């Protein structure tokens, strides 16, 4: 008979992680564990206040399914048992992990992938003064992709400072809904001049209909506006790239379906993450195979990762060990 355990964990961030909505110094995650005999499946999620979640609410959502998990709830049934979000992500990934261990194969095999290649991730620079962001960029100038958090009056100064400090690095900017449409239209040509490759979620989700019909000189990426296939049609009219995160889709199962649907519409894919440990990132590596942009640097932002964690060489994430996940 299967059993479920759930717990909250806190992991310190190296320094402070700052975006347009606020800052934090620790990552608070929820881990779900499903045991069936000798096999144990694990999944991790990050409750996110922006989406109406707290650690306590997510733990309660997971615990409420204990009896159904014990009775054999599978991934297909889970998709309707819980809404998209952190709780479903933790359970979905735990079920993937459990199924892989029971079958004696790796999770990517179950997902129809012939192998799992290393993934090159972007590295995030927190929102700060132009001088501080330039210093951080200079320290990471050899990384292939830097992602800048923006969302304020000095945004152009920030990007120019980072570009000067890291002249050869590909740049992504992420406003986390921090701009208005007029600011975006004024800023975008300069971002193109500075060879920024992507602008992620520039406008608040409730206002991004303004993007329809506007041709940005820099590709636009949907993040907060896109959770599951339910939002895909609207996002596809407004954005060039779709950012898929397991904590938004509610797990790998829906994430893979969303990726297939987005590609059918001719959209490029970005695979992103919340600030989590390697356990939260490992399932996303299946999703990140061959995508245009991978932003899976969460373990690099922590002061300490879980053991065992992902083996990370520079900006390259190696496939997870079975002891970690999948």
How would you sum up this structure, described in words?
The longest helix has 18 residues. The two termini are 21 Å apart. The protein has two domains: 109 residues, Enolase-like, N-terminal domain (Enolase-like, domain 1, 2-Layer Sandwich); 199 residues, Enolase-like C-terminal domain (TIM Barrel, Alpha-Beta Barrel), CATH 3.20.20.120. The protein is an alpha/beta fold. The chain contains 14 helices and 14 strands. Helix 1 crosses helix 4. The chain has an eight-stranded parallel beta sheet. A three-stranded antiparallel beta sheet has the order 1-2-3. It has a three-stranded antiparallel beta sheet with strand order 4-14-13, with no helix packed on it.
Give a concise summary.
The protein is an alpha/beta fold and 326 residues long.
Question: What is the spatial order of strands in the main beta sheet?
Answer: 5-6-7-8-9-10-11-12
How much of the sequence lies in strands comes to 15-25%
Structurally, the number of domains stands at 2
CATH superfamily of the largest domain: Enolase-like C-terminal domain
Largest sheet: 8 strands, parallel
Number of helices in the DSSP assignment? 14
Spell out the helices and strands N to C: EEEHHHHHEEHEHEHEEHEHHEHHEHEE
* Contiguous runs where pLDDT drops below 50 for at least 5 residues: none
The CATH topology of the largest domain? TIM Barrel
């Amino acid at each position: 008979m299967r059993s479920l355990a759930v717990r909250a964990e806190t992991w310190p961030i190296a320094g402070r992680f700052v975006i347009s909505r606020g800052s934090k110094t620790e990552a608070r995650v929820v881990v779900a564990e499903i045991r069936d005999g000798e096999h144990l499946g694990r999944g991790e999620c990050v409750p996110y206040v922006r989406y109406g979640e707290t650690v306590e609410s997510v733990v309660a959502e997971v615990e409420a399914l204990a009896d159904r998990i014990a009775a054999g709830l599978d991934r297909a049934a889970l998709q309707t048992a819980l809404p998209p979000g952190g709780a479903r992500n933790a359970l979905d990934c735990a079920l993937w992990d459990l199924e892989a261990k029971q079958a004696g194969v790796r999770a990517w095999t179950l997902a129809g992938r012939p192998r799992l290649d290393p993934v090159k991730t972007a590295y995030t620079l927190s929102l700060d003064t132009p001088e501080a962001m330039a210093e951080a960029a200079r320290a990471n100038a050899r990384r292939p992709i830097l992602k800048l958090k923006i969302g304020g009056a000095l945004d152009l100064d920030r990007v120019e400072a980072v570009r000067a400090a890291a002249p050869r690095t590909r740049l992504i900017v992420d406003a986390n809904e921090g701009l208005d449409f007029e600011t975006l239209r004024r800023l975008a040509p300069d971002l193109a001049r500075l060879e920024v490759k992507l602008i992620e979620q520039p406008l608040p989700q409730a206002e991004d209909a303004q993007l329809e019909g506007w041709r940005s000189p820099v590709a636009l990426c949907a993040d907060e506006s896109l959770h599951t296939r339910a939002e895909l049609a609207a996002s596809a009219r407004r954005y060039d790239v779709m950012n898929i995160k397991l904590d938004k889709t509610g797990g790998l199962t829906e994430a893979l379906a969303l990726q297939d649907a987005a590609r059918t519409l001719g959209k490029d894919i970005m695979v992103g993450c919340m600030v989590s440990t390697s356990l939260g990132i490992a399932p996303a590596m299946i999703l990140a195979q061959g995508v245009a942009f991978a932003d899976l640097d969460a373990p690099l932002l922590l002061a300490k990762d879980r053991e065992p964690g992902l083996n990370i060489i520079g900006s390259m994430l190696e496939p997870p060990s079975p002891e970690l996940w999948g």
